[in-house]
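Human:
Focus on the backbone:
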Amino acid sequence: MLKTYQVKPVTGSIEGTIRPPGSKSITNRALIVAALAEGTTQLTGVLDSQDTQVMIESLNRLGINVKHDPEKCTILVEGCAGKIPQSTASLWLENSGTSIRFLTALCATGTGEYILDGNARMRERPIQHLVEALKQLGVDVVCENDTGCPPVRVKGNGLSGGETAISGSVSSQYLSALLMVAATAENPITISIQGKMVSKPYLEITLGVMAQFGVTIDRIQPSVWRIHPQTYRRSIAYDIEPDASAASYFFAAAAITGGSVTVEGLNQDALQGDINFIRVLEDMGCNIEQSRNSITVHGCPLKGIDVDMNDISDTAQTLAAVALFAEGPTSIRNVGHIRHKETDRLTAIANELKRMGIKVEETEDSITIYPGEIHSATIETYDDHRMAMSFALVGLKVPGIVIADPDCTIKTYPHFFADLEKLCGQSS
């Protein structure tokens, strides 16, 4: 385990090609849906990371046979046809928000008692909105410490159907969790979405994965969705596209160094909304080139922008790093919900930029970054993989940038620093 990682600056522009690992968002959704399906599904191109590992381990604890081959990037899932085999299980999810939220809903479809918990930060991450929505459907579920956060206890007896309401303002994962399990209910489930939905593209990922396994929803109104009882059909080979959030770091490397980086396996039609980070870079001055199976970002002189990143908030930290090298300030708006992620990301960004001597203005749901002279610094990562990967980009141009606790990237991208070095090596 590395305590720190010192980023080696590049002498010129980065020119190269890379393919990031499979999408975490798609992998964990596909695992839930394949677990609920009839028959055996093969997932290909899957991500091997802490977030996916805790999901796989938990599904196995629930009696769903999941076989993972990390070298081949494949997973075989023997679906339970909507009926969880085990009647009791204790699930440990570290700090994987997708895992604990999706699995809480999955356990509601079972018959028995299930405990879901995680590390110290997980016990600070809200899940009460999902708990309340499940209660409205007749599920016996509570946050054990009465904090609105894990640990969660679920006494499942299957879903009978009915109506429920859920807030969209904190995390789209709550609605995604409900949508994926609703098809297993005995009767239709109607979900009313309250407030403005954050991170809407992630819902499209959920619906896209469900559709690939033969399940659809009815949108009665923009904020009222209904799911009728349906059967997930196995997918003989479901291929998972590369992670667009991970790709953002390499696109940003091109922007920061004035180089050209091609990411293979993605195009503008990717299922993941974070692919639209390239449009943010384009607004800053970069040139974008696309083919059917790749995207290339050509770095050009950068200008600061004012941008609403609600839909692609997982790339807000990436943009914060790029903003340091732009002409004029950059404002990242409508991202207050990222305070409830692996860490309070807005405050973390502000703290580390100030550590490097950069002026920032932070509000409840935005941050404005004023480029200036960047000082060398050891960057605290707050056990947040995206802090480590994003701020490492600054070190490509600024000597003396050290990343504390670089191994926190095991959450979604264990080989990030090796891949970054490989990309930089292509330019030498």
